[in-house]
Specification:
Length: 397
């Protein structure tokens, strides 16, 4: 396949016209529109995206870290298509579908191997909400320790743990006060009234920040000493992104609860909080009305997509592939991170992303001030596609 070579000014006329219309109908806070941004996606395959004007791009974001097995992965699409003909929706917490059972079994095997339970949710933030509630139920202690620079989502519970002022300030008066934020990389010394530590093994939206090697093991020890839970938010880092199935494996740390989302569904929204049975079984047995559930919990299409995505990660050995391609990038650019969760400190990544778009590369800034160029492509990106992107980046920075 050829590499992007754009002939028109980006965004093209159709993307511009659509963006103008979108501004009239969508909440104005959502999609940033300027004369250089955005393009409208029309189709995507692997690391390739085509826009409404027929231009082709390479996606260095994997669509926010979702398309680890590649955009519109044929096996994932087939699994969804197959289920589409028979069952679009079931009754999550009342009359379930069999794929939910299969996926729960698979997630237990992948994370804790055995003796764990899954609580399905739909988005990353909801998985974090589920973990926070589980910790409260299990420990009876309301406090949570989280970290500066953390991003756990924007629903109220998750937002209380997210540390960026930009997201918090308009809602400060309504945010729960149960979270204490520590500097990322520093282990707390006291756990007063805290039931859990919530942490990303590698901070993603905070700027692709890898903590010191002793951080997670010491956090584990701290939690054990104080009888509190370690919650890992692997929504971004999970499913081979960092070169291991889960980032915690880099440090040999086993958590009590783990939150996953993004790449799990291969493009469909599904997430989960998975926990040791000894912790999760603090939830009371359902007597017909669940305390925590949602309408789309364990949606059959999303479960089919997730099972197919996981099968693809295994078949293509994407953990190894992420490691190898990560090493390749590290040889060419002074990036930080692990596997294909890499960041390049560039000063003004927002401006750089606009220039990259003009050259056929989709990228987004990370970091509190948008100072980091994120490099989190589909794990299936080819060496040639990647080299094209690296050449352009090297030329522009
Ligand atoms: C580590 C982490 N946790 C949670 C979330 C929230 O996920 P969602 O946007 O699906 O709610 C994100 C999103 O970027 C994330 O990176």
């Amino acid at each position: 396949m050829s590499l992007p070579l754009l002939r028109t000014r980006i965004p093209g006329p159709r993307s511009r016209a659509l963006a103008r219309q979108l501004r009239r109908f969508e909440s104005r806070n959502v999609t940033f529109v300027s004369d250089r941004w955005p393009i409208f996606w029309q189709r995507a395959r692997g690391a390739n995206v085509w826009d409404a004007d027929g231009n082709r791009y390479l996606d260095l974001t994997a669509g926010f870290g979702v398309a680890s097995v590649g955009h519109t992965n044929p096996r994932v699409a087939a699994a969804i298509r197959n289920k589409t003909g028979t069952l679009l929706h079931a009754m999550g917490d009342v009359h379930p579908n069999e794929l939910k059972l299969q996926l729960a079994r698979e997630l237990v095997k992948l994370t804790f191997r055995t003796n764990a339970r899954v609580l399905f949710t739909n988005t990353g933030a909801e998985a974090v909400e589920a973990a926070l509630k589980t910790a409260a139920i299990h420990t009876g202690k309301p406090g949570v320790i989280a970290f500066r620079g953390a991003y756990h989502g924007l629903t109220y519970g998750a937002l209380a743990a997210t540390s960026r002022e930009f997201f918090r300030a308009p809602f400060a008066e309504q945010l729960g006060k149960f979270v204490t934020h520590m500097p990322f990389g520093r282990v707390p010394t006291t756990a007063r009234n805290c039931g859990a530590v919530l942490v990303e093994p590698i901070q993603g939206r905070g700027g692709i920040i890898v903590p010191p090697d002793d951080f997670l093991p010491k956090l584990r020890r701290f939690c054990d000493e104080h009888g509190i839970l370690l919650i890992l938010d692997e929504v971004y880092t999970g499913f081979c992104r960092t070169g291991r199935w889960f980032a915690c494996q880099h440090w040999g740390v086993v958590s009590d609860l783990i939150c996953v989302g993004k790449a799990l569904g291969g493009g469909l929204p599904i997430s989960a909080c998975i926990g040791k049975a000894s912790v999760m079984d603090s939830w009371p047995e359902s007597q017909g009305e669940a305390i925590h559930t949602s309408t789309f919990l364990g949606n059959p299409l999303a479960c089919a997509a997730a099972l197919a995505s996981i099968a693809e990660m295994k078949r293509l050995k994407l953990d190894r592939r992420a490691r190898e391609l990560g090493v390749h990038i590290q040889k060419r650019l002074p990036v930080r991170g692990k596997g294909l969760m890499l960041g390049l400190e560039v000063g003004d990544a927002t401006a750089l992303c606009e220039r990259l778009l003009q050259r056929g590369i989709i990228a987004i800034p990370e970091g509190e001030r948008g100072e980091v160029l994120g490099l989190t492509p589909p794990l299936t990106i080819t060496r040639r596609e990647l080299d094209f992107c690296l050449d352009v980046i090297a030329e522009l920075v």
